Amino acid sequence: MHQALYRTYRPASFDDVVGQRAITQTLRRQVAEDRLSHAYLFTGTRGTGKTTCARILAKAINCQHPIDGNPCNACPSCLGIDNGSVTDVLEIDAASNSGVDNIRSLRDDAIYAPAEVRRRVYIIDEVHMLSAAAFNALLKIIEEPPEHLMFILATTELNKVPATILSRCQRFSFRRLQVEDIEGRLKYVALQEHIPLTDGAARLLAQLADGGMRDALSLLDQCSASGGTLDIDQVYATLGLAGAQKSTAILHAVAEHDTAAALQLLSDLYSAGKDLAALLSELTDLTRDLLVRRSIPGGTSLLSGRFAEAETSALAERFTAPELLYLTNLLQQTSSGFAKSANRRIDAELCLLRMCDPALSLDTAALDARISRLEQQIQSGVPAATAAVVNPVPAPQVCARNEPPPREEGSPPCDAAPVENAPVGFWPDLLNAIRPELKPSVRGFFALKGPVSCHLSGDNVVLVCQNETIRRLVDNPGVGNLIANRAAALLGRQVIVSFKVSDGSGCDGMNQILSNAKGLNNITIK
Predict the structure, then answer these.
(1) Paired residues of 121 in beta bridges
(2) Where are the alpha helices (DSSP H) in 303-454?
(3) The CATH number of the domain covering residues in 426-525
(4) Which of 204, 215, 233, 354 is buried deepest, with most CB atoms within 10 A?
(5) How far is CA 178 from CA 18, 175, 182, 292, 511, in A?
(6) What is the model's pLDDT at position 150?
């Protein structure tokens, strides 16, 4: 049976441990100078070498021929500890032996002298899983153990270990391994196993391991099973990842507020069997990198390194910091809800919809993102609402309740229907002209009896929406420019296009609409 790579290449001496030089040097010197403590506590994230160093320390203190604090790995003691035949070195999983009775049994056996080696060693893994009563039972013997006894505790959650235990142990904090250290180890293992591993794939696997050597070797083991040269594309395919290029393409669609493109990319990735949780994780990493670039100029050392520097630099300029903060939080919230989700695809699609259009979200983060965008555009001298205005013209005179306005020859009276001065069939003709070019997300709003109606007075084309939600969806430069172009072609003159919300107030309401036709939402074209 094939043995996992992380087991095959588990370090056998302190010199073999990667990325924990300060800890291994201290432990090796303590063994060489016989200045050992009776209790050690190893803490750190998964896969950083806690249990491995505990086993090496147990071998080193019982080795018959130690070499500068390292075990020789050749004497009967070292070999017996490696194969588990030495009963005086016992490894206990606290997750499955968390009760007080288990610790009482351990305490009763610990008082006896070792039968095969110099010192009896108890390695308690995931010690934070012990119950309160079990910790209390362990407290006395870990404080004053017999001369022949040593405890080595390991945990990933230091905050759950009582202070009374912490104060009786020498504590060593194992740090996350650097990408470069993991990458070098992966290349060494690949060379020994005759795995054709490219530099890019080794780098990607090291980044995906998130500081854990065991995770990195497990990923290498999984990806190499398909055979052939192991490159970046093979890693993406095996692990179900979208990849940096696809993730960046989705963020480009979000920057352009192109909901259709973003959803199409998601659909393509879903059809290709990509893991949606992994996709959102990649997008989170990307928005995080963009936020770092936006907030800390020159902080390239803080980037994840998974995305092209030139690409992220250009993409970061298209967002404000509050927008990126909103996107990152939204992605994290969606990812955290996947565990209880009935349909992950729908959750991911709703997430992309809110990313493309923050107006669909009512929380303060979305509002802050929208405000920051407006502030940036105003500071740059191109306000968002007027960015598409070309050669604005004065608004026409409109009806007042008590004062008849001056009217151009041929213009309708105040009480005339709003479209009576338009050519016959203007609105149906305009609909036929614009509908084929509208995006599917807004096309349904434009129909003869739809929620958007058209009013024409002079050079003003006013699109009146039934409510504010519909106005937000259709009021954008792309739709406005399209309507202005097609209306100008039908009428033979320049027009002003504006979007308003219906107030049901008849001619007086239209007067107010037309009087504001030169407002921020107007789009003018010749």
Answers:
(1) 89, 150
(2) 309-316, 321-336, 344-356, 364-379, 426-434, 440-443
(3) 3.30.300.180
(4) 204
(5) 9, 9, 6, 19, 67
(6) 92
